[in-house]
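The aim of this short unit is practical: by the end, you should be able to scan a pair of folded records and say something sensible about each. We start with the first protein, listed as its amino acid sequence and then its structure tokens.
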Amino acid sequence: MLLHIPEVLTDDELAGIRRALDSADWADGRETVGVQGAQVKRNQQLPDASPVKAELGRIVLAALQRNPLYFAAALPLRTLPPRFNRYQGGGEYGFHVDGAVMISGHDDTRSMLRSDLSCTLFLCEPDEYDGGELVVSDTYGEHEVKLPAGDLILYPSSSLHKVTPVTRGARLASFFWVQSMVRDESRRRLLFEMDTSIETLRHSGADQDAVLQLTGVYHNLLRQWAEV
């Protein structure tokens, strides 16, 4: 499931993140990938040890916690601390698949999770740069994504994907991975569709007993499928 989640960040949060990134110290993005990924990756990232990365990551995580659409779609169990990247001057990231297990930090701060979902949170408006589309390839073809600043795209980490070359300006984004309570993508989609249907029925004045019964079915399925 490829899902666009709008307005994850407020205008004030977005402005603060942009100011911090404008004065941040960037590193070669190839430092955080393996040999195969390094062959197709040309961008910059905030180092994992950067205090700016840690502070901005907390802002992103807080924004996600208050977003009901994100929670309904991802059913997050664990989230890797958000990272931040910059593409400019022809920078790109060729087709690749994200690693199945993601690791962040070192020694006592080390965290590890299974990557069920990949997320890109756009931090620049589309007209600020040329190129830089996130292209996600699945059984239905290739999907190009270039969202307004503050919007997020969520997609299965098993998807083949790339970032096209940025030929003008700079593309700034936050990216991170989520281990979901529900590992299976098809089950997660069914739960999301049921949850959104329940919300629609609740706000349309539908029979409350029927809505309550359907809500019970949702939670019993989640209880059966969740790994917590």
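Turning to the second protein, read its sequence before its tokens, just as you did above.
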Amino acid sequence: MKIKWAMLAAVFTIVTVLTGCEPLAVLNPKGPQAETQADVIWLSIGIMAIIVIAVFAILVYMLVKFRASKQDKDYEPPHIEGNVIVESICVGIPVLIVIFLSIVSVQSNYKVESTPDGYKEKEPLVVYASSSNWKWHFSYPEQDIETVNYLYVPTNRALEFKLYSYGPITSFWIPQLGGQKYAMSDMVTTLHLAADSPGEFMGRNANFSGKGFAENTFNVKAMPQDEFEEWVDEVKETADPLTEKEFDQLLEPGHLGQLTFTGTHLKFLPPPSAENGGHNHGSGSSNEHTEMMEHGDKD
């Protein structure tokens, strides 16, 4: 009786605690890329749940059917040959599951690596997202503004992030908008995202990069296009210009709050010229960098 009440109390406690928990960010998507990934996660969870339930059901059946019995101590069970059908099922089903999940994973990877569906005909907002110990710098070449540790984006518009690092390898991740992608010091990687609805989201560096890694986060706010344009106009009227000397100070290791500037560091400290797989350690011509900033470096 005590064991029964203890189990009921434990179940009640777990249910009470879980009821007050917020949903996992990756399972609460606010953009098409994150929704694709959430669907794959739920599909994988469903398949694994079926497998676990089936295995435990077979385990209980085997324990009950072949439990110890009052046989003579000299009893020897009859020799039984392997069953081809059973063995085919045991081998075939896992193979089919792996093939199915592989196809789903490849298709979803191609989908999240490209411009989101429904946004391919629209001009994307290009943002250069660079990291340093331990902060994020967001450069808007089209708007000619730059922010530190916070990101404002318009809803219902494709977002094209150009990622690189001024320090160790980091990983740019906004769980509710899409998956993570590495930012490196000698090349630029491209991440396509979009926000379907207004809201505030958490972003962070998902790759360990030293003692300040835990606070290497940034805030993301998605808003309608007209509000985004109003914010840009306000920044241009109120923010101080970003100078090369000040940017050098920002690159020093440490934590900062949220900062806003007019102008971007792309003009005096361009990003690496290598793109998605080519490593040339930033050895590109200035003309290439200028063309990248003028045309948004579209893929």
